[in-house]
Amino acid sequence: MKVLNTYTSAWKFLLLNKKIWLILFSSNFIFALIVASPLNAFLSDSIGNSLILNSSKSLFDYSFIIDFLNEYGSGISGILKVSKWILFLFILLSIFFTGGILESLRHKAADFGTLLVGGIKYFWSLLGIVLVFLILHAICFLLMFKIFESLLGGFSPFGLESDAVLIRSAWIITPCYLILCFFIFLWSDLSKLSLLHAAHKNIFKAIARGFKLLIRKFRLVFPFYFLILFTFVLISFVYHIISGIWELPSGFSLVFLIIVTQIFILFRVGIKLVNLYGLNQLTKEWHHE
Amino acid sequence: MRTLIFIFLFIYSGLNSQEALSPRIANYDISLSLDTEEKKINANQILHWKNTSDQAVDKLYFHLYYNAFKNTESTFFNFRGLPSFLSNEDEASCPWAWSRVSSIIDSQGNQLAEQMKFVSLDDGNEKDETVLEVQLITPVAPGETHSFDMNWEAKIPNIMPRTGYNKDFYFFAQWFPKLGVYETKGTRYAEQNQWNCHQYHSMGEYYSDFGVYDLKINVPENYIIGASGELIGKEIKDDRATWHYRAEDVIDFAWAASPHFIVKEDKWNDVKLKLYVYPNHVNCTDRFFETIKFTLEYLDEYVGEYPYKTLSIIDPPIHGMFTGGMEYPTLITSLSFCFLPTGFKSTETLTVHEFIHQYFMQMVATHEQEEPWLDEGITTYYEGRILDELFEKNNSFVNIGPLQIGSSEFNRGEFLSSEAVKLAPNTFKSREFIHGGYGEISYNKTAIWLKTLEGLIGRDCFDQAMQHYFNKWKFKHPNGDDFEEAINEIVTQVHGEKFGKNLDWYFDQVLRGTETCDYELYNIKNEDKPVQKGFYNNLVKCEVHDAPEGEYVSSVTLRRNGEMKLPIDLLVKFDDGSEKLEHWDGMARAKAFKYEGSKKIISAEIDPKRKIYLDTNFINNSKSAKQSANTNSYWYQFLKATQNIFQSMTIFI
User: Fold this and answer.
1) How far apart are CA B337 and CA A167, in angstroms?
2) Which of B72, B272, B377, B495 has its CA 20 to 30 A from that of B192?
3) How far is A32 from chain B (nearest CA, A)?
């Protein structure tokens, strides 16, 4: 019951602090637009008048894609190269905003000033935590990869008794890997919250506290995190159904789908915030014990 | 009594001497024993060979394919380099193999073992022992058939390309001492009677004469054998079983053995279909049989009859995948990859492809090492065509959600995306593709230009030409010239001189040339009819004639960007709903079509029926006066993907 109450109150808190939500969504939209805008002009100039696009039945037209990459691939690769740097900037900005979100949790208010102050205050600590957990994810992936390899007895197909071994091993390893990732993500979020409630900015202490918190409050945070995940899956499913109605949207359907996509991204951003709000709600007493 | 004997002989001859489909020049009786402990074969082989030339023959040449795997110095590995699984092998395991003829006795009882030596006529590599020359003591006179009784043994390779064993799966292809082809003058490119027996190169497989193969294969009792031809009988003695197989009018014999095979059977007309499959692949049975039956039906209708009574499909286990996707007479190997989604149609693709080889290089026995396009290219063309008919042309290769790829278009994509588009002409021998491009050019490019040829001359004419080629050359050894001649005969018969005296202009470009084809619709113009100014009705006073309102001068300009020249169609659409189909010989670098009148051009398209599959860029084939709304759709998809990727990255933050 406590979990459900927390879940609903986190959404309420989000609705009361729409500014942060909108700022985060806007940053996603603006950065993506910066990446995608040159493509619009490029497509119009290069293939805008070709009839081939009208005869395509679906968006994935193999012959069109092959010819496009052969003929205009250099233009696309230029756009993709730039987009890597824009993505890097977006990640840094997201880390900065996460600091702001933490600060807003402290003050229970979310104006632009709080966001800015929190961003500055927590940026380097959060960057450190992000890096540590990225390393942890890499170790986890490598570990699972090695276990998968040892279950198979090596990746050479010539050493496999049958391809059933491959499938069986994948069925064992994939859920294990996902569960492990689930814990690491949860641990990472709790570590960030520890940073907020601790008097220091030592990331390793925050990570250790995050782990303790995960163990101590597991019965509460696990179902909450699961609920968050379920919400994400549900929203993604609905979005997938709606966006699959038109294979090649144009005119009204295109405008409609652009709006639907923005609502979906808005929800994704919102779920992330609800997660932090809720986890904070569930664990804040422990921090002050 | 005499009547009884006569009746008996009549019935016996009726049962046993089914009319020969082929010349049956090289016939083999082989009795062999498979040693699964030592990984060896011991065999006695009697070769009955007929000299069909007008000259006595005093030498024989045999392929000893397994010697290609004797060591790293063979021509096979010199060209190909060592596969990673061989270079990483631990010292204890020895995957290498060999083949050794210990005795060869001719019809006169002469032992010829002392007369044998290895020769390397292709590259002079003395370390290569894949061709054995035998000097005869008694030459084989013209028209005579001599028998040669041979004893030989072979060490079986472990995981080598196309053949060998792994765990308890065995596949024997290009495995026994096989006679080369004595090409009589006029056969293919032979200017005189001569042996054609190339070393075993890593690309290109085999070329042999037709004959009857009678095999008695002795294996441990628990092993199941799948082989070329028909199973005549099986005898069990002392924990060993002898399987008797017979294949008639074929150019080779292959077989597989495993204790784990499950045999599934089906039928198409009188053809007995057998699938040899491992237990965990049994669920793929229908995919194999449905595909093969469709292919048999299709080729029967559009190419010619499949005259054999059997077809065996071997589905190797994953550890035997080095033998997958191979073609031998009345036996093919596929790979089912049952763990992949069924929308990934590799099983169907391989099954169709390998079966088509029964026609092109088994029955129409071309030389794959010398002219790979004649079998791999034609086969790839039909592979695309059959799969596009069996499924849909935009998803016959991959059909997984929105990811849809057709077989023919995949073949085109493979060629155009490669770096080998202009690397070599189609006429290269397999071993001449030293800088790459073997697959892209021999397989894919040929398939594309055959599809283009089909577009140019029409499918009916194309089918007629291919039927003519097949019927004229089945159970013989044609070359590329014979193919061209067969096509030319029918095209001139159907179209007269519409395409010139023959199609040499086409074959010169696609077969012997390396150039590409790209026609571009450069621009569309719609301009008001200009005002007329100047001296018209007299030489004194300038006149100005206003253009009538609503009159336009419109034009479409085409460009030829590639060096290849092909006749093309142009479809022009006007704003009043009318259309005009134009034809251009495609010879000049550019060509404009002009129209005057009250209508404007709204769009134009080169090759609207997509006959010219060789065109490297379909995007520039058309233009419309208005921009397509679909560019927005593509842009939106990119924006959506970017937003989602960006947001997904925040999961780590």
Assistant:
1) 11
2) B377
3) 5
Q: What phi and psi values does residue A13 have, to the nearest 5 degrees?
A: -60, -40
| Distance from the A199 Cα atom to the nearest Cα atom in chain B, whole angstroms | 21
Taking CB atoms and an 8 Å limit, are B646 and A32 in contact across chains?
yes
For residues B253 and B247, the answer to whether their CB atoms sit within 8 Å is: yes
- Separation between Cα atoms, residue A186 and residue B541, nearest integer Å: 93
Q: Return all residues near A280 (Cβ < 8 A) that are at least 6 apart.
A: A105, A193, A196
> Which residues of B251-292 form beta strands (DSSP E)?
255-258, 262-268, 271-277
Are B342 and B397 a contacting pair, CB within 8 Å? Answer: no
**Which residues in B613-649 are b (16+ Cβ under 10 Å) and which e?**
bbbbbbbbbbbbbeebebbbbbbbbbbbebbbebbee
Best interface-test mutation with B: which of A21, A35, A44, A67 has the largest number of B CBs within 10 A? A67
d(CA B273, CA B452): 34
What number of helices (H) and strands (E) belong to chain A? 9, 0
Question: How many pairs of residues across A and B have Cβ atoms under 8 Å apart?
Answer: 188
Nearest to A52 among B619, B642, B645 (CB): B619
| Residues in chain B closer than 8 A to A69 (CB atoms) | 417
Does the pLDDT value for residue B5 go beyond 50? Answer: no
Does any CB of chain A come closer than 8 Å to the CB of residue B407?
A: no
CB-based contact B49:B69 (threshold 8 Å):
no
| Residue A264 burial by Cβ neighbours in a 10 Å radius (0-12, 13-18, 19+) | buried
Distance from CA of B423 to the nearest CA of A (A): 17
Sheet holding B519-528, edge to edge: B519-528, B552-560, B590-597
**CA–CA separation, A15 and A260 (whole Å):** 19
Handedness of CA B227, B228, B234, B239 (dihedral sign): negative
What order do you get walking across the sheet with B26-35 strand by strand? B98-105, B145-155, B40-50, B26-35, B211-220, B240-250, B230-237
The DSSP code sequence of B222-241 is T-EEEESSEEEEEEEETTEE
**From B407, which residue of chain A is nearest by alpha-carbon distance?**
A62
- The whole-model pTM stands at 0.92
Half-sphere exposure of B34 (CA within 13 A, CB side): 31
A133–B638 CB contact, under 8 Å: no
CA distance A205 to chain B (A): 18
Per the DSSP assignment, residues forming a β-bridge with B595 are B554
User: Alpha helix locations (H) across A108-217?
Assistant: 112-152, 163-197, 203-216
The chain A residue lying nearest B523, using CA atoms, is A49
* Spacing of C-alpha B186 from chain mean position: 25
Grouping H, G, I as helix, E, B as strand and the rest as coil, residue B271 is strand
In sign, the C-alpha dihedral spanning B386, B390, B391, B397 is negative
Residues of chain A with Cβ-Cβ distance to B319 below 8 Å are: 157-162
Contact A164 B280 (CB under 8 A): yes
Q: Which residue of A has its CA nearest to B524?
A: A49
For B640, name the nearest residue in chain A, comparing CA atoms only. A261
pLDDT tens for chain A, 289 residues: list them.
789 999 999 999 899 888 889 999 999 999 999 999 999 888 888 888 999 888 776 778 899 999 999 999 988 888 889 999 999 999 999 999 999 999 988 887 777 888 899 999 999 999 999 999 999 999 999 999 999 999 998 888 888 888 889 999 999 999 999 999 999 999 999 999 998 888 777 899 999 999 999 999 899 999 999 999 999 999 999 999 998 888 777 788 889 999 999 999 999 999 999 999 999 999 887 766 6
Taking the Cβ of residue B262 and every Cβ of chain A, the question of whether any pair is shorter than 8 Å is answered with no
Q: Hunting for tokens 């020359």 — which residue is that?
A: B133
